[in-house]
Amino acid sequence: MAAECFVAGAAAFQVYSLLDWLRGRLAAPIPPPQTPADLIVITGASRGFGQAVAVALAASSDGTGRTMVLTARTAGGLDHTAALVEKSGGGKWTVKKVVADLSLRETLDRSLSEVVAALPSSAERVLLVNNAGSLGGVTKSVADMVDIEPLREYLELNVVSVIALTSRVLQKFAKSQCTIVNVSSLLAVVPFSGYGLYATGKAARDMLHAVIAKEHAEADVKTLNYAPGPLDTDMQTEIRDTHMDAEQREFYSKMKTEGTLLTPEQSAAKLVTVLQSGAFDSGAHVDYYDLP
User: What's the order of all strands across the beta sheet hosting 93-99?
Assistant: First the structure.
């Protein structure tokens, strides 16, 4: 009988000890999610979604000694983004700015070399956000796109520069953990009239990042095609003002009037949450509206 009481008492002690441990765990503060990288490179960072992503990532910093490289065409815009990053990140980031026009074929190689030169010699975790891009005009159908030079210019920025920069980053940080985000669009997977160039560029970029995921399936490399949703940006204004399809103009004008367009900050916050969690399949296309 005494032995049975001892066993029962020991079991009860173990249960209560476990409960005390659980209470301690539940009461303990939950650490904030970690910054998804200690080196972040963002193209098209002078305004809009690129700027919002830079600021959101800076705010997620969990320590010092981190570097953010921002690139865009305009120095003034980059200066403004850098100031916002400094404020948002509380001085934890070393910010480097590279003014580069990735749409110019004659200077593209030099521009990419300048971006790569701004990167540190090593980094444990690298995040590249391929954000830079353009609409390509929405006033013409494909049948009217007979001039070759505008097509070349569009593909130079929206496809060629993305391939060239991504390959350089992968080579430089071959031994690092790399995450590559392509800023995609619903138009990468669903066709709409008037977006011949834009949809072509977005679809090509989606497939590029899916291929990278396949080629690096056994390596520490992940890619994500993130469609940020309909953002209230200058590109949206251009669509509402100039799109060849009256239905498209009316649809987005209604969204603007009703306040249902997303702010870049809203979508950037969701992207950062996904990156922090790492809960995505490499190479996948994920839309803002797919996420909780």
Answer: 93-99, 66-72, 39-43, 125-130, 177-183, 221-227, 284-287
Nearest residue to 247 (alpha-carbon basis) of 195, 283, 183: 195
113: three-class secondary structure by DSSP: helix
8-state DSSP, 216: T
Question: Any idea how long the chain is?
Answer: 292
259 — phi, psi (to 5°)? Answer: 75, 30
Q: What is the pLDDT of residues 243-275, one digit of tens each?
A: 999 999 999 999 999 999 999 999 999 999 999
DSSP β-bridge partners for residue 225: 182, 285
Q: Which residue in 132, 133, 141 sits closest to 243, CA to CA? A: 141
The separation between CA 89 and the C-alpha centre of its own chain, rounded to angstroms, equals 18
Chain Cα centroid distance, residue 183: 6
Residue type, 192: F
Given phi > 0 = left and psi -120 to 50 = alpha, else beta, which region is 157? alpha
User: For residues 220 and 176, is the Cβ–Cβ distance under 8 A?
Assistant: yes
Indicate the pTM of the whole model. Answer: 0.88
- The token pair at 104 is 């110019």
